[in-house]
């Protein structure tokens, strides 16, 4: 029998022994939490020595599955085998490296102290650990920062440190739970390079992600939906499912209105803004004339992406029109010429650190304005200042003609705010949350009833009204948060990462509502790190290291990248973003 | 294999120490709070009566009554406030402006002149019985001394039977001498709870517990890795308390240091065990706070024999106090400070404290979920 | 103007309603709020006593004559003393005290009874355990009364009765608590302590928790003013405090037989004002802390000294003058004055209002500070 003792072998981590065919086998795996099924009858084999993407929105069961594989939970049904042994087996713990969401680092310890702790836990002697540290530090390019506190690292560096810690035990299988979240696009690319190198050396890597574009890069994927497997295999095979059903239509000035019309057409499974065009996905059983119509308005058939296939697999978008479409008097009364949100020279310093540096922009009525940037870039700081939650060190911001700093309650009732983290009261019922916000914004009973009734119906919250808010599925939580923020028909709506972690289908829904609100005259300020979502914005501002590095329409930004960059053909927003960051970094070295 | 086991514990301990060093709140709890609390306990809780306020209602006004009133006014035990009438005196009593009233009746001087019994009344605010007894005792003593000197103009006549009392270990019967060691017990119970009641909750919240559990660390290692660093912090606080007791409150230290170390160690284990148990069982921090208050601080304050004598409690409660580590530690500390190393007192207490510590730590071990699903 | 007030009241009502729903969200939370304080008042009310009972006495009797036996006999009849153990010799004296087997030891010398019979003064020694000097002193006080009683029957006392100086008839009377029941003193105080702690913890941790979950931002962004939020947050603490207070009152009066001489509505008024002050202190602590852990530490750091210098355990007058002055800032101290005044003393309204005013002042200042910090932290 093999002992559990760890051999401090080569950190480039060639898995020893196993015949190299299957790393993980799930047999009828089920997991139930207090009556709710988190995982339902999973059957799958994950090959050894390869990178497998575990794809799905929040609460689809990714984390639960990884925790079971890491031996942190016992499945309630079936079993999970890791290299032929039950995952809960103590011997497995030596062969599994696990990095949870938010990296699981001791933020109050230095980089080196974190590494030392894990070396100690894995039973490595000083002598054995030393070359390993050197190798891992070089691999992760963290060598210059060994004395730095983990809390002072950027998201990307924390990420790498988390992986380095997980690699210290020379595991045969590495489990990464959403390592891409909160990391700027450039660091994410570097991460891919690292993981690619590891799996190239024969390590089994399971990478959980909510992003389909990320998943498309994995050689194998398992797509989870509500605790079950929606699809598994190579992403290319899944993409082929949508072959011949995707079209790019010209959008132009009235793109959003056209989009809204397409969304409601029977036979349409997905429709979204993509730059100046509309991306259309037709159902397999779409009526034949629809296809002709799409081509007739100048549509071009285009190769599908993983997201198209995913949307098709989950049954397409919700075609009900947004309740926000009806123009409301509250949003209409302001004239549409003067800016609704005006930000001038906004600066916020925390000690020596400048979180927001001289930021200025304007948002007009009926406009969707996007703030883009990696975590920690200063988006949230800017946002909090706009809402009056944080005092700027200098500069000012005016919302709907009122200086937010001096504003009283009346001015605040003109804005709606949906924070990044779900922030409704989890312990009380959905209905009580709605009542609370209606009362806070002074809605009279009649208006409250009618508005709440309409919104809950459209959002499909009717069944949940009496249940505890914390037991809502994530997508419903986000809808409830939007509902509570817009119950009073605010003139300016602030949405901080409204769609993070939400599945693609719910995201479409969200943007349907957001565009409808803007069309009805509201100003929408939104932050996001989904580049494709940024396409919905009328104008975008890129925020990086506290500064606003460029502002413009999505097409403007792409164009500017083309002229200044290394001549990329047809850059995506993400490429434009990375180019912007690189330009800024060379102009402003640290 | 054995060495590997210990290495893991050492790695965890080193991590914990590094965290403690960087965390100002643990310094506050271990280094500053014990001193603040001990000062408040030492000065705030005392059973020795201060200067008592006494209203004197002299309805007679004759020579003898004035002399008696003057005796009261000159006594260091009393601050005398003249009252003009019974109504005013009663009001002062109701509003706690005075703790007692000396009423000299109008026929006082006449009665003395006639050779009759002269009537005096001492009204005492009985609200706080301890103070009431002091006033009663002091004033009756004063009256009988005055009677002996002023009226019989001779030496104080001695009673037929005299009790000569001697307080061993505490000759002046100063309450601070036995209250301060008790205060150390209460403070250390509190510090032990505060230090540990949130440690596991913090690891869960930050997601680091998940990482630890995904490594080959066992529950026992985890527990030891937490216990040892906080034990050291607790012992540090303990020595601060012991030094300040001697330096600030003039409590004698008649025992040996090593007995103090032994007793404190065993007690500390039980106090930390209690805190850790709260930490692993209470989900919300509000619940942990309440549990800390109601299972740690208040019982230690009221049931450990700190102010309220345990022997005088009803039998059922006396049995309950046996389960409180604070009660046993209190007994030991008083003996250790005031009387010295008396193992006949220490041994049973040590045994019970060790037993309680073992049970508490075992419960922590049992409740420390190795997996997330429980 | 009127409509502005109306909508402010509506918002406060909505927040207060939410607070109550959160506080009583499930069975566990409801139990946590209700059961421990009730258990505490019964247990601690029962435990707290300054009476001394069950005293063990050791006797080293070299005399064995009539008078020493008489004293011992009387002690045996008293309810204060539990056991009287004769010691075989001088050598046993130290260990019996050392090991706390006896709280006091009486030592009679061989001449004791003979001297009394001869009409002379006689002394005997009492050794008290200084580690429990308070209990020992009280026990000695009982012993004194026994000895006084015995003295009266001695030949010397009989001789001195005739032709002595005119005696004074000094009568001692205890008002408000004629039998000096300690529980009459302690139970009203316990009501204060428990309400104080609950108020501090319940209100103190709510804001910190909302900060951690992010819901506090939602409230601040809404039209509700910080002052409205603060006031609304005080409501649940006040309601719980009043509910507990009512039960405490019933337990104290009917369970422990503590008299209640004041007006009940005055007690409720004071409980309300006091709850506002406790909530205010809690709110102030949590306004300064950004995590629940900090609020937790803050509540203990402020709460424990407040209890110690409130006069709830030992009287304020025993404390050094400086601390007595500091304790003027302590709402618990004034509440205890009111409680004792209402239960035992029928305190005058003027004195009560003075104390009430001081509590009110604390609540106004603490809430104002909390509101100021809420707005400044933004």
How would you describe this protein?
The complex is a heterotrimer of chains A (590), B (374) and C (378). In chain A, strands 6-7-8-3-9-10 form a six-stranded mixed β-sheet, sandwiched between helices. A six-stranded mixed β-sheet of chain A has the order 20-21-22-17-23-24, with helices on both faces. Chain A has a four-stranded antiparallel β-sheet with strand order 2-1-4-5, with helices on one face. Chain A has 21 helices and 24 strands. Chain A is α/β, with parallel strands linked by helices. The model of chain B has no long low-confidence stretch (mean pLDDT 85). The two termini of chain B are 29 Å apart. Mean pLDDT of chain C is 85; it is low at 162-166. In chain C, helix 3 (66-77) links the parallel strand 1 and strand 2. Chain C is built from 15 helices and five strands. Chain C is 67% helix and 9% strand. Chains in contact: A-B, A-C, B-C. Chains B and C meet through helix 2, helix 4, strand 4, helix 6 and strand 5 of B and helix 2, helix 4, strand 4, helix 6 and helix 7 of C. Strand 4 of chain B pairs parallel with strand 5 (168-175) of chain C.
Please describe the topology of this protein.
The complex is a heterotrimer of chains A (590), B (374) and C (378).
Chain A (H helix, E strand, L loop, with lengths): L21 E12 L2 E12 L3 E5 L6 H8 L7 E6 L2 E2 L5 H4 E4 L11 H11 L4 H15 L14 H13 L5 E5 L7 H16 L3 E6 L2 H4 L4 E6 L2 E6 L1 H6 L5 E5 L4 H9 L4 E7 L2 E6 L5 H9 L3 E2 L4 H8 L15 H4 L8 E10 L2 E11 L4 E5 L6 H8 L7 E6 L2 E2 L5 H4 L2 E4 L11 H11 L4 H15 L14 H13 L5 E5 L7 H16 L3 E6 L2 H4 L4 E6 L2 E6 L1 H11 L8 H15 L3
Parallel strand pairs in A: 3-8, 3-9, 6-7, 7-8, 17-22, 17-23, 20-21, 21-22
Antiparallel strand pairs in A: 1-2, 1-4, 4-5, 9-10, 11-13, 11-14, 12-13, 15-16, 15-18, 18-19, 23-24
Helix pairs in contact in A: 3-5, 15-17, 16-17, 20-21
Chain B lengths: L1 H21 L1 H21 L7 E7 L4 H12 L3 E5 L3 H9 L5 E5 L3 H7 L3 E8 L3 H23 L9 E8 L6 H22 L2 H8 L1 H7 L4 H31 L7 H25 L3 H19 L11 H7 L3 H15 L3 H25 L7
Parallel strand pairs in B: 1-2, 1-3
Antiparallel strand pairs in B: 3-4
Helix pairs in contact in B: 1-10, 2-7, 2-10, 3-6, 7-10, 7-11, 7-12, 7-14, 10-11, 11-12, 11-14, 11-15, 14-15
Chain C lengths: L1 H22 L3 H21 L7 E7 L4 H12 L3 E6 L6 H6 L5 E5 L3 H6 L4 E8 L3 H20 L2 H6 L7 E8 L6 H32 L1 H7 L4 H30 L8 H25 L3 H17 L12 H6 L4 H15 L3 H29 L1
Parallel strand pairs in C: 1-2, 1-3
Antiparallel strand pairs in C: 3-4
């Amino acid at each position: 029998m093999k002992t559990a003792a760890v051999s401090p072998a080569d950190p480039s981590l060639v898995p020893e022994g196993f015949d190299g065919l299957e790393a993980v086998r799930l047999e009828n795996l089920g997991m139930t939490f207090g009556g709710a099924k988190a995982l339902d009858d999973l059957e799958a084999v994950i090959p050894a020595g390869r990178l497998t993407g575990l794809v799905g929105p929040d609460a689809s069961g990714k984390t639960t599955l990884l925790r079971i594989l890491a031996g942190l939970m016992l499945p309630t049904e079936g079993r999970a085998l890791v290299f032929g042994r039950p995952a809960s087996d103590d011997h497995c713990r030596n062969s599994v490296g696990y990095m949870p969401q938010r990296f699981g680092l001791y933020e109050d310890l230095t980089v080196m102290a974190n590494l030392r702790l894990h070396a100690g836990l894995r039973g490595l002697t000083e002598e054995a650990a030393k070359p390993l540290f050197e190798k891992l530090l070089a691999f992760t390019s963290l060598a210059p920062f060994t004395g730095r506190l983990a809390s002072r690292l950027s998201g990307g560096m924390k990420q790498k440190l988390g992986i380095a810690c997980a690699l210290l035990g020379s595991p045969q299988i590495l489990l990464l739970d959403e390592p891409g979240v909160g990391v700027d696009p450039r660091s994410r690319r570097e991460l891919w390079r690292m993981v690619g190198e590891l799996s190239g050396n024969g390590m089994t890597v399971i990478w959980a992600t909510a992003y389909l574009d990320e998943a498309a890069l994995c050689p194998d994927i398992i797509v989870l939906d509500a605790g079950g497997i929606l699809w598994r295999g190579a992403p290319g095979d899944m993409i082929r499912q949508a072959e011949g059903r995707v079209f790019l239509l010209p959008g132009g000035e009235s793109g959003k209105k056209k989009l809204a019309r397409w969304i409601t057409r029977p036979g349409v499974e997905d429709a979204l803004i993509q730059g100046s065009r509309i991306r259309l996905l037709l159902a397999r059983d779409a009526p034949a004339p629809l296809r002709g119509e799409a081509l007739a308005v100048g549509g071009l058939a285009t190769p599908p992406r993983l997201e198209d296939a995913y949307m098709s697999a989950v049954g397409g978008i919700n075609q009900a029109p947004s309740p926000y479409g009806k123009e409301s008097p509250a949003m209409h009364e302001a004239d549409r010429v003067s800016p609704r949100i005006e930000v001038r020279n906004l600066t916020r310093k925390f000690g020596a650190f400048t979180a927001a540096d001289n930021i200025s922009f304007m948002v007009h009525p009926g406009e969707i304005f996007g703030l883009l940037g990696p975590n920690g870039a200063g988006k949230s700081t800017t946002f909090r200042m706009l809402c009056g939650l944080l005092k700027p060190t200098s500069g000012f911001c005016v919302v709907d003609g009122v200086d937010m700093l001096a504003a009283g309650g009346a001015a605040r009732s003109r804005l709606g705010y949906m924070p990044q983290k779900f922030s409704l009261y989890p312990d009380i019922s959905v209905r009580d949350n709605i009542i609370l916000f209606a009362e806070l914004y002074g809605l009279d009973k009649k208006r409250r009833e009618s508005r709440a009734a309409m919104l809950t119906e459209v959002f499909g919250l009717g069944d949940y009204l009496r249940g505890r808010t914390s037991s809502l599925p994530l997508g419903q939580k986000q809808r409830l948060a939007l509902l509570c923020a817009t119950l009073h028909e605010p003139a300016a709506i602030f949405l901080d990462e409204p769609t993070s972690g939400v599945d693609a289908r719910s995201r479409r829904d969200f943007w349907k509502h957001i565009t409808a609100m803007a069309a009805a005259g509201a100003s929408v300020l939104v932050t996001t790190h989904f580049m494709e979502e940024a396409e919905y914005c009328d104008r975008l501002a890129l925020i990086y290291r506290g500064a606003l590095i460029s502002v413009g329409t999505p097409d403007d930004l792409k164009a500017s990248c083309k002229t200044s960059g290394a001549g990329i053909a047809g850059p995506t927003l993400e490429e434009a973003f990375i180019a912007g960051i690189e330009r800024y970094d060379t102009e402003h070295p640290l | 294999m054995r060495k590997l086991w210990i290495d893991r514990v050492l790695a965890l301990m080193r991590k914990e120490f590094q965290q403690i060093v960087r965390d100002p709140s643990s310094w506050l709890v271990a280094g500053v709070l014990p001193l603040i609390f001990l000062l408040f306990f030492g000065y705030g809780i005392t059973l020795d009566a201060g200067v008592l306020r006494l209203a004197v209602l002299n309805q007679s006004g004759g020579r003898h009554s004035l002399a008696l009133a003057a005796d009261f006014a000159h006594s260091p035990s009393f601050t005398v406030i003249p009252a003009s009438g019974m109504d005013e005196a009663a009001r002062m009593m109701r509003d706690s402006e005075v703790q007692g009233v000396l009423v000299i009746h109008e026929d006082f001087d006449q009665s003395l002149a006639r050779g009759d019994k002269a009537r005096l009344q001492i009204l005492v605010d009985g609200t706080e019985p301890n103070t009431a007894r002091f006033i009663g005792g002091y004033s009756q003593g004063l009256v009988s001394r005055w009677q002996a000197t002023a009226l019989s103009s001779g030496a104080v006549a001695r009673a037929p039977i005299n009790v000569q009392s001697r307080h061993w270990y505490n000759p002046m019967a100063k309450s601070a001498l036995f209250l301060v060691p008790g205060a150390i017990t209460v403070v250390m119970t509190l510090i032990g709870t505060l230090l540990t009641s949130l440690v596991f909750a913090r690891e869960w919240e930050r997601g680091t517990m998940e990482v630890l559990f995904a490594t080959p660390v066992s529950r026992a290692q985890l527990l030891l890795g937490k216990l040892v660093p906080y034990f050291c912090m607790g012992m540090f606080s303990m020595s601060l308390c012991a030094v300040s007791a001697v330096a600030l409150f003039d409590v004698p230290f008649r025992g040996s240091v090593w007995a103090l170390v032994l007793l404190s160690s065993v007690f500390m284990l039980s106090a930390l065990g209690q805190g850790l148990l709260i930490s692993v069982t209470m989900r919300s921090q509000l619940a942990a706070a309440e549990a800390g208050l109601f299972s740690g601080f208040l019982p230690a304050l009221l049931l450990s024999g700190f102010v309220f004598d345990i022997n005088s409690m009803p039998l059922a409660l006396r049995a309950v106090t046996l389960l409180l580590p604070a009660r046993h530690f209190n007994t030991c500390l008083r003996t250790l400070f005031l009387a010295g190393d008396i193992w006949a007192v220490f041994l049973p207490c040590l045994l019970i404290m060790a037993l309680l510590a073992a049970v508490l730590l075992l419960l922590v071990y049992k409740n420390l979920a190795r997996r997330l699903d429980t | 103007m009127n409509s502005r007030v109306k909508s402010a009241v509506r918002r406060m009502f909505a927040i207060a309603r939410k607070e109550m729903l959160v506080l009583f969200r499930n069975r566990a939370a409801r139990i946590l709020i209700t059961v421990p304080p009730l258990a505490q008042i019964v247990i601690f009310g029962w435990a707290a006593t300054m009476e001394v009972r069950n005293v063990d006495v050791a006797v080293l009797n070299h005399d064995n004559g009539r008078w020493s036996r008489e004293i011992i006999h009387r002690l045996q009849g008293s309810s204060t003393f539990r056991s009287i153990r004769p010691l075989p010799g001088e050598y046993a004296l130290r260990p019996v005290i050392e090991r706390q087997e006896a709280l006091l030891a009486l030592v009679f010398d061989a001449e004791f009874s003979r001297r009394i019979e001869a009409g002379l003064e006689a002394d005997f020694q009492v050794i008290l355990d200084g580690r429990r000097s308070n209990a020992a002193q009280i026990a000695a006080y009982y012993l004194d009364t026994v000895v006084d009683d015995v003295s009266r029957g001695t030949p010397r006392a009989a001789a001195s009765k005739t032709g002595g100086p005119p005696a004074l008839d000094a009568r001692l009377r205890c008002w408000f608590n004629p039998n000096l029941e300690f529980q009459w003193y302690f139970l009203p105080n316990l009501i204060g302590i428990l309400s104080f702690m609950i108020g501090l913890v319940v209100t103190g941790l709510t804001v910190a928790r909302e900060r951690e979950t992010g819901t506090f931002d939602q409230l601040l962004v809404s039209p509700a003013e910080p002052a409205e939020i603060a006031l609304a947050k005080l409501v649940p603490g006040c309601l719980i405090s009043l509910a507990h207070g009512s039960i405490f009152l019933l337990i104290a009066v009917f369970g422990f037989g503590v008299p209640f001489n004041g007006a009940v509505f005055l007690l409720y008024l004071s409980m309300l004002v006091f709850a506002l002050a406790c909530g205010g202190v809690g709110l102030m602590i949590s306004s300064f802390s950004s995590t629940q852990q900090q609020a937790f530490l803050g509540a203990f750091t402020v709460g424990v000294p407040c209890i110690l210098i409130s006069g709830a355990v030992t009287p304020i007058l025993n404390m050094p003058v400086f601390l007595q002055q500091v304790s003027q800032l302590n709402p618990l101290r004034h509440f205890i004055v009111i409680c004792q005044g209402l239960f035992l003393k029928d305190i005058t309204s003027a004195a009560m209002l003075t104390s009430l005013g001081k509590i009110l002042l604390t609540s106004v200042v603490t809430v104002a500070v909390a509101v100021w910090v809420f707005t400044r932290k933004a």
